[in-house]
């Protein structure tokens, strides 16, 4: 029986470990099964110690599975050294939940003031915000002015819904450096989309992508107890499946746009997908992830009952180097935590840009 169970675990592990490279557009349930990968890592670890302690040659199978699945450990937990006083281009990304997220009976206005002040005081050179709310009709609610223009930032704001001259929400990129070009890659009818801005930094130019991919649309309140899970599991699975498929199609548009970028790319935002996903590993093949390079701990970024999710990320082209990555878990004004990274480079990016254009 032990031999049978070990063999089943090994085969199932291999299937799931390689399923992260299969687009949910072709096999929708692949994206749902990969959520079991952390459990498989733990089971293989237990089986290895059990079989090794019993001095069974069969211990080779869970050990091989652990070797093949080691990359999933790296995307889950890191122990990189903490860099003190990093210098370079600092980039922040934050899903601000329309600047009105409340909990424990807090007043909307108080939360808005707190999050606005924190963003205003944060020294990052680039600030990318998702689910951004702008109100030109009420001076105290003019977030672009309070967070950006009053303190010397340029900005690129792309409205997703609402009146651009009155009240609206969308996505925004604030920059201390000149923005020489901007655009929108796609949007849908909710708060999701991808925008970009080309930022001029002395003789170099970096393209900043701010992404908010299709939401999982899961009500965390409905999953906060066993009855809620039993009642909503079919609906939840359906939403997960739908989100996986839509994100896969959005991802192809995004990757094509980044391939045609004449500049070094930094991609940040709320990806609404865990590290054990086609979304994450598809991007990981093209770019590096700042958490893996310079992060510490688990880096969870979700601030609700499903606290164990890391769905906000900072990816970057390997011509850049990350000095520091941080998850700002002390900032709980939204249903996401902000994350930031500091970048440097030792080659003239403009030279790289010209070479790319010639090719």
TrEMBL record:
Transmembrane segments: 29-51, 58-77
Boundaries of every Endonuclease/exonuclease/phosphatase domain copy: 92-336
Keyword Magnesium tagged: yes
Molecular function terms from GO: endonuclease activity
Alphabetized UniProt keyword annotations: DNA damage, DNA repair, Endonuclease, Hydrolase, Magnesium, Membrane, Metal-binding, Nuclease, Transmembrane, Transmembrane helix
SUPFAM superfamilies: DNase I-like
Signal peptide feature range: none
Domain of life: Bacteria
Pfam (any one): Exo_endo_phos
Cofactor annotation: Mn(2+); Mg(2+)
Record bears the keyword Nuclease: yes
Protein name, UniProt field: Endonuclease/exonuclease/phosphatase family protein
Organism: Belliella calami
